[in-house]
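Same chain as my last thread, 83 residues:
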Amino acid sequence: MGLLDRLFGTRADHHGRHGRGHGSSPPPTVAAICPGCTSRIASTVRFCPRCGVSVMPMACTHCGASQPAGARFCGQCGKPSQP
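reply #2:
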């Protein structure tokens, strides 16, 4: 089994055709790193499956600007984020 086969799960069946195998799905796309535990977070989740921290963007309570999850200060106005 080659490196690409191990990474992407492709393999030849008994007829020599290549595919992903039965019941397997492609790996989730990594969109970010969890602000709580630094785990890799899939693009389809709203909460970190390892530590439970929300990975959804939030709005600044002072100016309304969008903030990344886990931000301690607003990138627009500089005020501290409210939990």
